[in-house]
Amino acid sequence: MKNGKITFIGGGNMARSLIGGLITDGFNPQNIHVADPNPDSRQSLTATYPVHSYDCNLTAAQDCDILVLAVKPQQLQSVARRLAPQWSADALLISIAAGLQLEDIARWISPSNTAAIVRVMPNTPALVQAGASALCANHHVSPAQRDHTEALLRAVGTTVWIENESQMDAVTALSGSGPAYFFLLMEAMEQAAIEMGLDPETARLLCLQTAFGAAKMALESSVSTATLRERVTSPGGTTEQALKTFEAGDLRALVKKSLIAAADQSQLLAQQLGQDDD
């Protein structure tokens, strides 16, 4: 697919990260086309990458093999409806807009409901090629198109396929929103360390490296995170005392409650955004 035409509608941060990943992965930048209404955004994009940029979605999308909708969820319906008259049955549509379901996107882009569509839930670490993306395809997506989608998202991190679209709400709660949870924990740890006497820069460096090291250990280990936790928890030691305090505060129940709240909100947004505009 490295010689096919891929078009991005929207040239924001996520599109930029995917474009950078594609080019690093060997994709010909001359086959990448981007539409964005903001002239400053287009100029910045073409100054960074030798890609084609447009102010018109229809012009950019013409005869493309893959169309990536990288717009805000609230904009996706209007964008898809305007593209529908020239939609090609052979093209693949990839949506990275949170909350929009496959059947709704298909209804807007293809009146015959035959469009091949993959819904993707990426997360912000994709901006540094460390993302986690869940992919869900409708039944019109071919095996080759699944491979193309996976190759695109693998350029910016890890990918997993979700066969049941209803699970995307849980994915949104876990990995889609998840970076913010870790940022909150790191923020709290840094602040506590500062209040205990460490200078801010020392607290920040030690906290960030500890978070990075823990994630790297978990990624490279064949055992569960529970086992890793047990291995670094000596009976009667400092780590055990901290973990007992977490457990006394019912941290597990709070985490579960928070993820359920995020998943419920994801489901609500899907219902609201999936309604046809008048």
Structure, described:
- The protein has twelve helices and eight strands.
- With 278 residues, it is α/β, with parallel strands linked by helices.
- The protein folds into two domains: 6-168, NAD(P)-binding Rossmann-like Domain (Rossmann fold, 3-Layer(aba) Sandwich), CATH 3.40.50.720; 176-267, ProC C-terminal domain-like (ProC C-terminal domain-like fold, Orthogonal Bundle).
- It has an eight-stranded mixed sheet, sandwiched between helices.
- Helix 2 (39-48) links the parallel strand 2 (32-35) and strand 3 (52-54).
- The longest helix is centred in the C-terminal third of the chain and has 23 residues, at 251-273.
- 35% of the residues are buried.
**CA-atom Rg in angstroms:** 21 Å
Q: For the report, how would you describe the main beta sheet?
A: 8 strands, mixed
Determine and state the CATH class of the largest domain: Alpha Beta
The CATH topology of the largest domain turns out to be Rossmann fold
Mean pLDDT, to the nearest integer, reads 93
Q: In CATH terms, what is the architecture of the largest domain?
A: 3-Layer(aba) Sandwich
Summarize the amount of helix as a percent range. 40-55%
Shape type: elongated
Q: What is the structural class?
A: alpha/beta
The CATH superfamily of the largest domain is NAD(P)-binding Rossmann-like Domain
